[in-house]
Request: fold
Amino acid sequence: MSNNTPITVAYGDGIGPEIMEATLNIITAAGARIDIETIEVGEQVYLRGNVQGIEPSAWDSLRRTKVFLKAPITTPQGGGYKSLNVATRKTLGLYANVRPCVSYHPFVKTKHPIMDVVIVRENEEDLYAGIEHRQTQDVYQCLKLITRPGCEKIIRYAFDYAVANGRKKVTAFMKDNIMKMTDGLFHKIFDQIAKEYPQIENEAWIVDIGAAKLADTPEAFDVIVMQNLYGDILSDVAAQIAGSVGLAGSSNIGENFAMFEAIHGSAPRRAGQNLANPSGLFLGSIMMLNHIGQTDIATKAHNAWLRTIEDGIHTYDIFREGTSKQKVGTKEFAQAVIDRLGQKPKELKAVDYKSVPKVEAHREASKVIRQNKDLVGVDVFLDFSTGSAEDLGELLKKVPGSDVTLKFISNRGVKVWPDGNPETYCTDHWRCRFMASKDDVGINNSQVIDLLTRINDAGFDFIKTENLYNFDGEAGYSKSH
Ligand code: NAD
Reply:
């Protein structure tokens, strides 16, 4: 039996096969001790009628190796194809997506000479749960799910990463001035966990101004932790302003599995022409080598790559007259890195991973302190298009029953009854809030069902309900605007 570490490799679509070949050539020349199992994922698998883009047998390889080096794939447009990336992250529990965005001034053109930001993105939750519904003629919704364990795990991972990598600060981006419950939870847990790491500075920014600051002054940031959507968008921005999306790699880490990739896509227009920059996937493979404990090889290969960049040997995407020295294709770039194995950069900072501890991803979330959960009301959502807010309020008042009372009606979150503003634009999607008539008694699910029956009998089209709970007396629902 060999002492090599088995890894699963997918060559992907578009530029994928070329950049994968280049990457594997470099790391094997550097001495990577790996046994490669190749699987097929992506376009051809989709087009054979597999909506997941991956054959069941490929999961067997992933379960065996637990390490996945993946080139970008093309998701065919339309046709109900599911994103393989989202499926892989969720199936394998890869909750932490780590995306270092570094500028290589003065060798790669950038507006931000001093930039070395690591974005730690939550990978499984948020609006990416894929729970979407069309509810009326006019209204569609997407559910944003944020969980306490999800926040704890990703935020702790960001702080552990900062400690292991000698970073000074962790910043959180969120939008809790608007999403007080979901983003509010993320912020609250960030503040709690930050206290466990007194040696690491911490700060929280509202994502909009934080993003503006990141785009303008990235040197003000170190490690940034974000929920899924903000992290998806802003890591592309960060990689692009550092120099090129073609230069950033990423790791997707879970308790038992890990996947490594470039952050960019399959760039089909560049495919098959020996043009693409393999650096994003290569830097992903460096993260993989560190993950499997081959820090010596990672250090050697990464330093040779830095030296190649420094020597001005550049693919078309980063080639600039005056700054660059030689424009090369994918293969020649890989060969230039191989030629420099054993060398270090002269001006750029050389890396040394041998003393960087691995960041473990299997820390359990803290135990739940169970709170009393009391049902105190229900929001009933109606599809109604035959009258105004006033009309709806008057009609609903006639729905009999004394255990719950109609408190207000809102439309797109704005209260429109009672005492609404006639100027408020209303769609056909109405939220009707019923609260227990007696404050101190609460209601139960049977009473909710009775209310729905009465609403249905009165001829209304109810489309969903959301129960309103108090947790230890504190409202677990948003008030109306
Ligand atoms: P893209 O990242 O493929 O390309 C965006 C731009 O960047 C293009 O101009 C391209 O030429 C350039 N570019 C990207 N990588 C490069 C590289 N290594 N070297 C040189 N130039 C590079 O994004 P897109 O065009 O929006 O998407 C193309 C396909 O990739 C789509 O099918 C999309 O679904 C898929 N995609 C896959 C992944 C993944 O597998 N992880 C991620 C994003 C997009």
Observations:
- Residues 405 and 434 are 5 Å apart (CA to CA).
